[in-house]
Amino acid sequence: MSDQTHTATFDRVADIISDTADIPRDTITPESHAIDDLGIDSLAFLDIAFAVDKAFGIKLPLERWTQEVNEGKVPAEEYFVLKNLCARIDALVAEKAAKA
Amino acid sequence: MRLEYFEMIDAVTRFDREAGRIEALARVPMESPVFEGHFPDHPLVPGVLLTETMAQASGYLVLAHLGFRQMPFLMGVDKARFRSFVGPGAELRIEASLEHDGSGYAVTKAAIRHDGKPLADAELRFRTMPFPAGLDAPMRERARRIGLFDLAGEPA
């Protein structure tokens, strides 16, 4: 994964979050935690997931992620800090491209 | 339709699993306390109940799509439009299609027609989650009663 790809993904995701959750775009950074820093609740996160799924042609595995976080297997930061979320989006896009 | 009991769908008339599509029928009752207030001497089905009707058709679609393993709960209504009026005795035809099958959520588009003309349409979002205790059986019974299992098959 190149830095350029990551930046492009982050810009797209940040735009989606800004539009969907009505959060000023300049407050969203790669280090932002979607819940703790940006205050996105679970309902709003589903709206964001829908927009991300559509924009990238993927299916974010939110149920698995939520289960892993709730069971303490994975820290929430792994999924909800935006740079990590974008890395996972890139991985899902690459996985889909490899299957095509 | 049993408006006071929020049982909006009378029958499922078509279910296409591959296309992610459902069609249903709802007959507006001739009498209901709802019409006493909405409106006095001028009974009209409220837009919120038309929205609920689209949500229930969509909900049965999502239920069948997920094999009755999870329950859809309405979490969002977008682009709702009410294009005409309808009152007691009307026969409504509802269509809903699955727009997106997400992880933990689903998005549908639904529309109601009356006398062949568009009556209402909306985009609906659902959170899908495990059935709360005790809800599974009554939902299956409702689905059976409206003919969903005849068209979609009995879930495991």
Tell me what the structure shows.
The complex is a heterodimer of chains A (100) and B (156). Chain A is mainly α and 100 residues long. Chain A contains five helices and no strands. Chain A has helices at 3-21, 42-56, 62-70, 77-80, 82-99. A six-stranded antiparallel sheet of chain B has the order 1-2-4-5-6-3. In chain B, strand 5 (105-114) and strand 6 form a beta hairpin. The radius of gyration of chain B is 15 Å and the shape is globular. The two termini of chain B are 28 Å apart. The model of chain B has no long low-confidence stretch (mean pLDDT 96). The A-B interface holds A 43, 46-47, 49-50, 53-54, 59-64, 66 and B 75-76, 100-105, 107, 125, 127.
Order of H and E elements of chain B: EEHHEEEEHH
Largest interface summary: A-B, 14 and 11 residues
Could you report the average pLDDT of chain A, rounded to the nearest whole number?
92
Q: Work out the strand percent of chain B.
A: 35-45%
Q: What is the radius of gyration of chain A?
A: 13 Å
Number of H/I helices of chain B: 4
Q: Which word captures the global form of chain B?
A: globular
Number of strands of chain B: 6
The whole-angstrom Rg of chain B is: 15 Å
Helix content of chain A: 55-70%
Shape of chain A: globular
Largest sheet of chain B: 6 strands, antiparallel
Order of neighbouring strands in the sheet with most strands of chain B: 1-2-4-5-6-3
Number of helices of chain A: 5
SSE class of chain A: mainly alpha
Low-confidence stretches of chain A: none
SS content category of chain B: alpha+beta
